[in-house]
From TrEMBL:
InterPro entries: Pectin_lyas_fold, Pectin_lyase_fold/virulence, QRT3-like, RHGA/B-epi-like_pectate_lyase. Keywords: Signal. Pfam families: Pect-lyase_RHGA_epim (PF12708). GO terms for molecular function: polygalacturonase activity. SUPFAM superfamilies: Pectin lyase-like (SSF51126). This is Related to exo-beta-1,3-glucanase. CDD domains: GH55_beta13glucanase-like (cd23668). Residues 1-16 form the signal peptide. The keyword Signal applies. Residues 120-342 form the Rhamnogalacturonase A/B/Epimerase-like pectate lyase domain. PANTHER family: PECTATE LYASE SUPERFAMILY PROTEIN DOMAIN-CONTAINING PROTEIN-RELATED, POLYGALACTURONASE QRT3.
Length: 845
């Protein structure tokens, strides 16, 4: 067996020989940064052929070795890879009595700490929490969360997976979450947190970590927990969860049980620091939760959110929109209520989309104001309204703005349409692309937890016999990881315990792979294989063009360990064998900002020319068809673990070229040089709530003007910024800033909710500031969206902040903020409820 393993480690992914590239010596990624420096020499076709006797040996060991050569025969430098698979048919689900995580080897580590640190914490067996319900358990749970000097000490350096076995937990004091913590119950026997009557108005779970601002409460998760407030008096404004958090947070499969006809609230979003409420955060996704009883299910107060797969039964109001700029509500059900959604506080509401939802036994689906402008825009797309329910009711006089259902294939729009044409409630037809549908709804998928699989169906990469994987941020783990993935495709679910897995070669993920981490296990690229910007290589490559099958990712994070200008961090080529079989859940991309990467220190200067830390964050190629839910691609603007602000010039955010069907549900890409999202020759793409921010170092006084420090490469769809020299644009530094979204030569696109923000644009004093746009009413950036040769586009609720031109279409400015006001407390920022481009709909622009 050792001969075979050596063979797989040698051949599982041979890297291309690096080409000579002019570099700055201070930013060369050195293989010496690894404990075991890698041999960067490549293995080419003639060398592979010389290994045929070894292949015969491997076949004699009853392992199928299938040469899968993807190369240009005229170029001997193209890498070659092999897939090695044992004969098996798995993993196989069953009916386990114990959640696999309880039985797995808990050998995850805090890779950047020198001393001992425990990642896995069982609140019962390790901290003595009483799960009988007879005595207070909150103290033990809080100890489980905070132990290891975690509070306010090392944002990413001390991750904790806090596990809650089944049972009843009496909560007399709030359970206080910290960033980089997952609080996870047993999905096979969900634990119940029962609020003691003495808790009063304090939340059962305080999800806001007060050592951070709400807009930096990242990387936190709560799952598989029932929160019950029925012991608190009905007249008290009891709170189940205060969730004032931001990107890369995961709230999934949580049940809120409140007494009927009470003042209780399931979720609030309040961030009180030194007596001041600083706002609810900058969120991305809440998914697949249930709310029973109470006054309000969710009191929404956030910059933006995608709420997906939620059910509300017996809540007087399902969702009360206290304030949100972009809200995308998909797959919701409301029963036995007064209002499903109350957005009557229109001054604090930018725009809401209600999609593929239903309501019954209620007064009205949506209770809202009619502002006569972009503020408080509402789009309804497929809404099944039960008998006696008013779909949309006016908060001014109680009149029906919309009486009945909105069928699949129709949209009802209240707001600025296409653009500068206010509609008080108009019905349009929409050509829903068949490739995006499941029945009459847009396809969605729940995050897998593999609770129906026994622990025997998993392979722990750090415990697998015959393989040596460290995850210690020191060794090169690429050969061993590639061998493990090849050997376990269609056989086992691959589990990455918490750690930082440095890889100097591309990690190839073959069809039949299921990969799960904990508290966002990190795969981080290092080495010269990722340094040629003219020949970028993926750090993680999901399939090759032509591959079809299954590839699932949960709770992983992909990154760069150094300044790697030739790194595509995540490349997706695999087509799904069925909708959603290629999927990413709570899986993120990060460049810089943390103690584990040299980017954290090497990209602090104001000059970004030497800080081209990654070529592209995410590339969804034309052959792929992924489902992506809750992904944050963040080029860091500051260090989470202490140190100066970051000035990083990542080239590109998300390049989307899929044609077979792709879904992005609750995603965000921020601070990249050329663009945040780019739909290039794409077809059949659904986007539900996308959020962006322009790079903070761009704009006035910046040493670089986009595309600099990069060069535009039109062969991969890069924008050229040629518009900045044309008539109609000012041509100043505010024009040469990365686009929030570029769309070119694309069709059959459906977008519900775009939150395109810019906050900083002044580098005059050498560090970023908002001197060029001190408040929402000032213009920070010239252009948000650039579009060419695009048809059949159904774009709903496009919002921008502090940008002159919202859309530039085929060289013509078709929407400006000044003509579409609303979105940030009624100020200049713009709202377009419906931008319908060459879609066959009458009255479109």
């Amino acid at each position: 067996m050792s001969v075979l393993l050596s063979f797989i480690a040698l051949l599982s992914f041979a890297a291309a020989a690096p080409q000579a590239v002019k570099t700055s010596s201070s930013f060369l990624p050195l293989s010496s940064s690894l404990t075991n420096p890698v041999n960067l020499s490549s293995i080419y076709v003639d060398q592979i052929q010389a290994q045929k006797p070894i292949i015969d040996i491997a076949q004699g060991l009853n392992i199928s070795i299938n040469p899968d050569i993807i190369l240009n025969s005229t170029s001997p430098t193209h890498p070659v890879s092999f897939i090695a698979q044992a004969s098996c048919n798995g993993p196989q689900p069953g009916s386990p009595s114990t959640f696999w995580r309880e039985q797995a080897a808990h050998n995850g580590i805090a890779a950047t700490l020198s001393g001992s640190f425990t990642v896995w914490r069982n609140v019962v067996s390790d901290f003595g929490a009483d799960n009988s319900g007879s005595s207070d358990a909150s103290g033990a749970i809080n100890n489980a969360i905070s132990s290891g000097s975690r509070k306010g000490n090392g944002f990413t350096t001390r991750p904790a997976y806090v596990y809650v076995p089944g049972g009843t937990y009496k909560i007399s004091n709030s359970v206080n979450m910290l960033v980089n913590t997952f609080l996870v119950g047993d999905p096979l026997n969900m634990p119940t947190f029962v609020a003691d009557s003495s808790l009063g108005t304090n939340p059962v779970i305080q999800g806001f970590d007060s050592t951070q601002q709400s807009t930096t409460n990242f990387y936190t998760g709560i799952r598989n927990i029932k929160i019950q407030t029925t012991s608190i008096s009905t007249g008290t404004k009891a709170v189940g969860l205060n969730w004032a958090v931001s990107q890369a947070c995961s709230l999934f499969n949580v049940v809120f049980s409140m007494p009927d006809y009470s003042s209780h609230i399931g979720i609030t979003m309040t961030a009180v620091v030194n007596g001041n409420n600083e706002g609810g955060g900058s969120g991305t996704l809440i998914s697949d939760c249930s709310f029973i009883g109470g006054a309000i299910g969710i009191q929404l107060s956030n910059q933006q959110y995608n709420l997906k797969g939620l059910s509300f039964n017996g809540c007087s109001t399902g969702i009360y929109v206290d304030h949100v700029f972009v809200g995308t509500f998909q797959g919701l059900t409301f029963q036995n209520c007064n209002y499903g959604v109350d957005m009557s506080n229109s001054y604090n509401v930018g725009a809401v989309s209600l999609i593929d939802s239903s309501i019954s036994s209620c007064n009205a689906g949506v209770y809202t104001a009619v502002t006569g402008n972009g503020e408080g825009s509402l789009v309804i797309d497929n809404f099944n309204v039960g008998s006696g329910v008013t779909a949309v009711k006016s908060s001014k006089d109680g009149s029906a703005l919309l009486s009945g259902s909105v069928a699949a294939g129709s949209t009802w729009v209240m707001g600025n349409e296409n653009p500068q044409n206010f509609q008080s409630g108009k019905m349009y037809q929409i050509n829903r692309p068949a490739a995006l549908l499941s029945g009459d709804k847009y396809y969605t998928k729940q995050q897998p937890q593999y609770e129906n699989y026994d622990v025997s169906q998993f392979v722990n990469v750090k415990s697998a016999s015959g393989y040596t994987v460290y995850g210690d941020n020191q060794h090169d783990d690429s050969d061993a990881i590639n061998a493990l993935l090849a050997a376990n495709a269609n056989c086992k679910i691959t589990y990455f315990p918490q750690g930082i897995y440095k890889v100097a070669k591309t990690i190839y993920v073959p069809p039949g792979s299921r990969i799960v981490g904990d508290v966002l296990s990190v795969i981080s690229g290092i080495g010269s294989n990722f340094y040629n910007p003219n020949n970028p290589q993926p750090i993680v490559q999901v399939g090759r063009p032509g591959d079809v099958g299954v590839a699932e990712f949960t709770d992983m994070l992909f990154s760069v360990a150094d300044v790697l200008q030739g790194a595509t961090i995540l490349e997706v080529n695999m087509a799904a064998s069925s909708p959603g079989s290629v999927s990413f859940h709570n899986t993120h991309v990060r460049v810089g900002g943390t103690a584990d990467t040299k980017v954290n220190t090497n990209c602090a200067p104001a000059d970004t020319s030497d800080c081209k830390a990654a070529h592209t964050m995410l590339h969804i190629t034309s052959s792929s068809s992924p489902y992506i839910e809750n992904m944050w691609g963040w080029t860091a603007d500051h260090s989470l673990d202490g140190g100066p602000n970051q000035n990083i010039a990542t080239g590109r955010g998300a390049l989307i070229e899929s044609t077979k069907g792709a879904w992005l549900v609750g995603t965000a890409f921020e601070h990249n040089t050329l663009y945040q999202y780019n739909l290039n020759n794409a077809q059949n793409v659904y986007i539900g709530m996308q959020q962006t921010e322009t790079a903070y170092w761009q704009g006035i006084g910046s040493p670089e003007q986009a595309p600099s420090p990069w060069a535009s490469n039109t062969s991969i769809g890069d924008p050229t910024f040629s518009n900045c020299a044309s008539s109609g644009d000012s041509g100043n530094s505010q024009c040469y800033m990365g686009f929030h979204q570029q769309i070119s030569s694309s069709s059959n696109l459906v977008i519900h909710g775009s939150a395109f923000w810019v906050f900083f644009n002044d580098m005059t004093d050498g560090s970023y500031s908002n001197a060029g746009c001190p408040n929402h009413n000032n213009i920070c950036q010239e252009n948000a969206v650039i579009m060419t040769d695009t048809t059949s586009l159904f774009w709903y609720n496009l919002l921008t902040k502090s940008t002159t031109n919202m859309v530039r279409d085929n060289g013509v400015v078709t929407a400006m903020q000044v003509n579409n006001p609303g979105g940030w407390e009624g100020s200049v920022p713009g709202v377009i409820a419906a931008y319908l481009k060459d879609s066959g709909i009458a009255n479109e622009q």
